Write the structure tokens for this entry.
Amino acid sequence: MRIRELTPADWPQVWPIVRDIVRAGETFAYDPVMTEQQAHDMWVLRPPAITVVAVTDDRVTGTANAYANRPGPGAHVSTASFMVSAAERGKGVGTALCRFVMEWAKEHDFVGMQFNAVAESNHRAVDLYMRLGFEIIGTVPGAFHHSTLGRVGLHVMYCEF
């Protein structure tokens, strides 16, 4: 597996990953009926942000993006989002993507990384982030409407570099 910046030719493989995760309604607070164009405009970011793909044998297995969490006085803290295809979960793709964007953020002089909305029911992601040095700073109770569990909390997580 290698991780590299997303190219326009990658989108046809990225879109099904994004579509399936968003429509499942279990992890991302994105509109489950978003169009492909809306998803592209939201996910594929321009510099100084980065959007990357994890690729195995020319097959996109996951994607991530990273950027300043807030503009101006908050621009020294980064944020990121990750999506891994269902067939590749549990195989280290998410870990590799997270490590990659954390290194990218450090190289671009961010002082830390903040995740604004991690569904507390997304145990795999929460555990991964904590293994990589993130802490749960707080939880907004009932802020995410999970498709099968109903309202669950959203964690704010942070890792100082």
In short: The first helix runs from residue 11 to 24. The helical segments are 11-24, 36-43, 93-107, 123-131. The domain at 2-160 is CATH 3.40.630.30 (Aminopeptidase). The chain has four helices and seven strands.
